[in-house]
Structures are given as structure tokens and as C-alpha cells.
Amino acid sequence: MENNPAASKRNVVFYRNTEKAREYKDYLTSEEPLAIVISYYDNSKTLHNFPLSITMRTPGNDEELCRGFLLSEGIIDSNEQIKSISVKTDSENSLLKDQSLRVTLKENCFFQPEKFSRNFYSSSSCGVCGKNSIDQLERQIKTILPEARPQISREKVFSINQIMKKEQRTFHKTGGIHGTAVFNEKLELECIMEDVGRHNAMDKVIGNLMIEDMLPAKNKIVSVSGRAGFELVQKALIAGFGIMTAVGAPSDLAVDLAHTYGMTLIGFLKDDQFNVYSHPQRIVG
Length: 285
What we know:
five-stranded mixed sheet; Cytidine Deaminase, domain 2
């Protein structure tokens, strides 16, 4: 973990009302900006560069984050539309340690930069800032979910948090990072990603599934370590997940979206209880 870019050590002074203050080194979750630049061809086959986004993220799995972000934001429809991704690692700011990814789209991928000319800055807590409208988000959902798949027993649902906690290695060190995990119907863990931004963790998972050619993820379960807001449910639906679980609460808009598009949405998931807010037919037993 000492060389893990997802965490770093800082000096901390610890106070307790019955003890003398003491200083020690504590692990903190790493947070650095990542710029995404789109290189695209116009009708005359001329290559243009467009600065799309700056997102605050935890370093690691940047390519997965980028691919998942482009899909969930409607820039691409599939992994095949990406020609190449190049990385610029030399930083122009020693404090921010800024990095950038340049994504070159294939010649036949139609990109309209004016649709994305909008201060597309994503903080660690919000990846939907700067969107033109909720309708634009909703139109990106194209997968029709099977009504009865995936299915999972209530006993297996109770096990999800324990499996995730065991595998969230950076969280064990820092206590300040979100996790998103993907399971199959047997509750076998297929992928887990961590990031200071919960929307980034989801994008990293989606990007990983894209690389593995496993989208849409109709027969898989996605689980998040925090709450289930509209944006996370929207991203999960774009990826085609039939079941989504969250440790925290869903919002009313997230529940409405899940209900409309056929997703089973579970919230307040604990070791011995959970709430199902939409399409409970996928939970058996």
C-alpha cells in the first residue's frame, strides 16, 4: 500500500478528552484532477481537439474511468467508437498533480462539441454538474431489461456488504473512499473499483466491463457503498444492470427512474435488512 497511488500518508494530531494529544501518520485517500480531451474528425476528415471535462478522482484505473464516463455521458455508444487513448502524465501544477487523457474517436463516430460546451467540471461528489437538462440524461438509457433476470435470494443480498468491505482495500486504510462492485447471480464478485468520487467508481466499473466486452450487464448486480442518487442509477441503467444495491438511501427521482426502466433498486442495505423500492420480483425467497 505504500506505493499505492490511491492513498498517501499525512501527519495528524489526535485528540481525546481523557488523553494527551499525540501525533502520528494517517492514510488519506488520494484526490487529483484528470482532464479528458476529445480528438474527433469533422466531415472533411480534419482532426480537432475538444477539452471535454475535468474530474476530481482517485488515481488508478483512469482508462476504465474515461471509457465509462464517455459511455454514461452519451459521448459514445460503444467501446468500438474509440480509436485510441493516450496519457499525459507530466504535471503543469506540482500541487494538483494534474494529468490528462486524450481520447481519439474513430472517423465514423459523429461528435458535436457544441452539445458539450458547458463548464463540464465534475467534483468528487457530483458528476452531473453542468448538464443541460434531465431529459438529456434520460435519453441515454437504451437497454431494455428482462423482467425476471437477474434473480438473487434475500440471503445472498445480505452478504453483499460483507464481500465489498473485505475487498475495499483502500477504504480499510483511509476510511474516505467510495466503492462500486459487480456480482453475477451466484454472488461471485466480478469487479470492484474504488474512488473518492462515487460517480467515478461507477464509471470505472462500467469502463472495465466495456473493455471486457460485457455490456450490457443485464444479468449482473451492481452495488455501491453510499447512497443511490439519480446520477448513479442513471449510469447503472445505461450499463444495463438489472439490480442495484446501495448502503444508503435512494432519492425519489432515483426510485422513479429505476421503476420506469425496470431496475430493481435496493437501499439501506445492511447485514440483516434492506428495502426494495422498485421491481421486487427479482428478489426470491
